[in-house]
Specification:
Length: 413
């Protein structure tokens, strides 16, 4: 029941970053929003107007920066920069929060000599507290001088967007389009409050491909549905989730449209970048020790498979069993059965890694010691085949540990 190896039309750039695509520079610094000296303000800047796209949280309570970013991208579908702070979500902060987000946009736009509607704003951190704007203003004024197009600049940016994350999350790939080398790169943050219904907690994609904003928006939304929307850590959707993509067009390829011969290759590269970042978020779930991947096949539709896979990977009992290295397939089938999707209760197969535990809904005797050793690893694959139709989907999550409670019991303190 394993997954097939598929040749990809792109290559991983081992030392690549969000500044590898032509035209981008980045940076980060500590401005004082965090109690420690960790970086808490960063930005990505494009030297030319970049085609832009964005997807946002569906939480009814949406942080002020989302309104600002929507307006910026909606103005003409172009961006020159995105400014990000961590340590404070600027969410549920009323009119003052909106004013602060607009001021951040305007001040950074002035600092890099672009119009305000070419700057996006993102925030992450504690909800319900006003920004310390004296600190933010000082940081914005200092930030441009330290930004550059090197890996160091990208690293500083990645540090600046972290909250409870333990690791930075960044990836870059390259491919050939019209004889030109095109790069697609991404960076993200996310560790807790992860159950996106749009994108990641905060995610940023840069590319030097030539593509229009509308085309990029369509690709970004499809990639999101298959990657960021298929992860969960704790079942909570944030007020600040945002994924923004910028395309400088400096690679010099012919403009990408659905009729372009390499459209599928570029879409595959973008999806791969999003998938790597999404899985990195799931693996870095607060307190997590393992990445859990659930692959559902044989569903009545891809949408049905998606709902079942996310229900399984989000089950607290399945997550707890993963932490305890318990091959309890009963928790898997119980989660599948409550997903609210069509399932024939007589035709379900389940495997944990290569260990078959259920065939046609009947238990299979397996070696518990072999299963225990497998489940002690840092990545667990669960396969479910419903044998009903051709729908399939993959979801990612993590185990549920004692540390998750410890971290979130004292998040503000």
């Amino acid at each position: 029941m394993g997954q097939e190896q598929i040749h990809q039309p792109f290559q991983l750039v081992a030392d690549g970053s969000i500044t590898t695509p032509q035209g981008f520079r980045a940076g980060g610094l500590h401005c004082g929003l965090k109690k420690t000296t960790r970086y808490d303000l960063g930005a990505i800047v494009c030297e030319v107007p970049a085609a832009a796209a964005g997807v946002y949280t569906t939480n009814v309570f949406q942080a002020a920066p989302l309104k600002v970013t929507r307006e910026s991208i909606g103005a003409d579908g172009m961006l020159r920069a995105v400014l990000v702070n961590s340590g404070n979500a600027n969410a549920c902060t009323g009119k003052q929060g909106e004013a602060d987000a607009y001021e951040m946009r305007a001040r950074f736009a002035e600092a890099i000599s672009v119009s305000a509607d070419q700057v996006a704003v993102a925030s992450t951190g504690v909800i319900g507290e006003n920004l310390r704007m004296d600190k933010v203003r000082d940081g914005i004024d200092r930030l441009p001088a330290g930004m550059n197009a090197t890996a160091e600049g990208a690293d500083d940016f990645c540090q600046a967007i972290l909250t409870t994350d333990l690791v930075q999350k960044m990836v870059c790939v390259k491919l050939e389009l019209d004889g030109r080398t095109v790069h697609v790169a991404g960076a993200a943050k996310g560790s807790g409050m992860i159950h996106p219904n749009m994108a990641t907690m905060l995610g940023f994609v840069t590319t030097d491909a030539c593509i229009g904003g509308e085309a990029l928006q369509g690709l970004l939304r499809r990639a999101t549905d298959l990657t960021f929307n298929m992860i969960t850590v704790d079942g909570d959707t944030s007020t600040n989730d945002m994924l923004v993509a910028m395309a400088s067009g400096l690679a010099g390829n012919d403009e990408l449209t659905s009729e372009h011969k390499d459209w599928a290759a570029f879409e595959a590269a973008l999806r791969y970048v999003c998938e790597v970042l999404a899985k990195a978020i799931a693996r870095d779930g607060e307190g997590a020790t393992k990445l859990v991947e659930v692959k559902v096949r044989g569903a009545v539709s891809d949408e049905s498979a998606s709902a079942i896979a996310k229900t399984i990977v989000g089950s607290s009992l399945v997550k707890s069993a993963a932490f305890g290295a318990d091959a309890n397939w009963g928790r898997i089938i119980a989660a599948a059965g409550r997903a609210g999707e069509p399932i024939n209760p007589d035709t379900v197969d389940i495997a944990i890694g290569d260990i078959v535990t259920l065939t046609q809904s009947r238990p299979v005797v397996f070696d518990e010691e072999v299963a225990l050793e497998y489940l002690k690893g840092d990545t667990i694959h669960i396969y479910v085949d419903l044998h009903m139709a051709d729908g399939e989907a993959t979801a990612w999550g993590c185990d549920l540990t004692y540390d998750y409670v410890r971290i979130n019991a004292a998040y503000r303190t």
